Amino acid sequence: MAGEKWTKPEAVIFDMDGTLFETDTLLVSVHERLFQTLREEGLYNQPTPPIERLLSCLGMLLEDIWRKVMPDGSDAAHRRADELMLRYELEQLEAGEGRLYPQAEEMLKKLKEHGIKLFVASNGLEEYVRGVARYKGIYDLFDGLYSAGEYQTATKVDLVAQLLKDHQIATAWMVGDRSSDVEAGKANGLKVIGCAYASYGRDTELAGADVLIAKLPEIVELLAEA
């Protein structure tokens, strides 16, 4: 922490994809199914785009994701992709696919033991964010799950601001792997912990974070030092 003393926060706010949930363990098969269905329905006639293109878009709003993943696709293809993505994600979560990052659940439980309130702030759809938490057994550890899909926020800055207001949180740490997480934390006056273990974004994604971690248990160590 470069000698800087951190204070114990009231809450820790987590991104979901690339932070708690190792999203590629779910999305690789979802991605292939989705484009196969689009072709079968006559909505998209090109080869399946590289999965890396989709993974690099994690953290964005869905409408922005499809502009980058299939810029040659029609509006109808993009809207159908929204539906298929959610359906296939939930089906495959229910089937046991996808995994949390190592020691994610243990880390969350330790933070709860220290009296920390836990939240998720994600640009994903409400059903998806809640589905991951439920199927991976961490739903009951959170004091709130906030998603752009539920609150119709244009940016994660707005989503985190809403969360802080709703729960009257004065001090919190923001934990995430994308520039949108750094921006959301900084714009709301929070300390930002950047997850350097996620490989979905560019190296510059976490510029501006107060500290970088290589694994989730380091958050508990930061708390112990606070």
UniProtKB/TrEMBL annotation:
| Pfam hit, one | HAD_2
Q: Give a GO biological-process term.
A: DNA repair
Signal peptide range: none
Domain of life where this protein originates: Bacteria
A single GO cellular-component term on record:
cytosol
Task: Spell out the molecular function terms from Gene Ontology.
Answer: phosphoglycolate phosphatase activity
Gene3D superfamilies under this entry?
HAD superfamily/HAD-like, Putative phosphatase, domain 2
Q: Could you tell me which PANTHER family the record lists for this protein?
A: PHOSPHOGLYCOLATE PHOSPHATASE
State the name under which the record lists this protein: Phosphoglycolate phosphatase, HAD superfamily
UniProt source species:
Paenibacillus algorifonticola
